[in-house]
Specification:
Elements lengths: L1 H14 L6 E2 L9 E4 L1 H7 L3 H11 L6 E7 L2 E6 L1 H15 L13 E5 L11 H19 L3 E5 L7 H12 L2 H4 L4 H16 L6
Length: 202
């Protein structure tokens, strides 16, 4: 977000810190941006709690900062909400579909494995949940500049395959049926599991 990036840059120049040092408090009652004072206090040989109080009491110079509070070793910044909304909407209008994207993960790759449908069962609502969730994570990672690689491992080996083939061979009507193959494979597998249980197959 351009507005927040620019604001962090301005604050970092005033406070003599890195823009990356700012974090987001766990709830809005604690401010919109927060800066932990340990590093800065160590550089100056000061107590971080006292340094936070000193900066909070004398801070000025940015109209889009409504209030600054010291809470322990944290310096919490409360933004002017009207200014934030107006500038954020301008950012969205200018950037369109690219809004919110960044290059923080540039140069790194992340593989996300999801979906992984069973070849011998029909997809159900649980699969849909995994597909939606996995695709969302993939898109978020890609939007942060990573080389995101979506993968779905289709496993067609194992005892479930052997059970299905065994029952399919025992019942030629499966091959002649006009029913969807996914349904037939699931039916064939579930029948085989009931018939065989944990016994060995001839």
């Amino acid at each position: 977000m351009v507005y927040l990036d620019e604001l962090k840059k301005e604050l970092s120049e005033i406070l003599g810190c890195s823009p990356k040092a700012f974090v987001y408090p766990p709830n809005s009652d604690m401010g919109d941006l927060s800066l932990l004072m340990f590093s800065k206090a160590k550089e100056q040989g000061l107590n971080p709690v006292e340094l936070a109080k000193t900066i909070a009491s004398s801070f000025s110079g940015l109209d889009n900062i409504k209030q600054v509070k010291a809470v322990g070793p944290y310096l919490n910044f409360y933004l002017d909400k009207t200014d934030f909304v107006v500038n954020s909407l301008n950012d969205i209008s200018e950037q369109g579909a690219k809004f919110g994207t960044n290059n923080s993960g540039k140069g790194d790759g992340v593989m996300i494995e999801y979906s992984n449908g069973n070849t011998h069962k029909e997809l159900h609502i649980g699969h849909l949940r995994n597909i939606s969730y996995g695709d969302s994570v993939y898109r978020i990672i890609a939007a942060n500049g990573y080389e995101a690689i979506p993968v779905s491992y289709i496993n067609d080996f194992g005892i479930f395959t052997a059970k299905t083939l065994w029952n399919w061979q025992k019942n030629p009507e499966y091959a002649k049926s006009d029913a969807p193959k996914g349904y037939l494979l699931g039916k064939c597998y579930s029948e085989a599991s009931l018939k065989i249980g944990d016994d060995e197959v001839d």
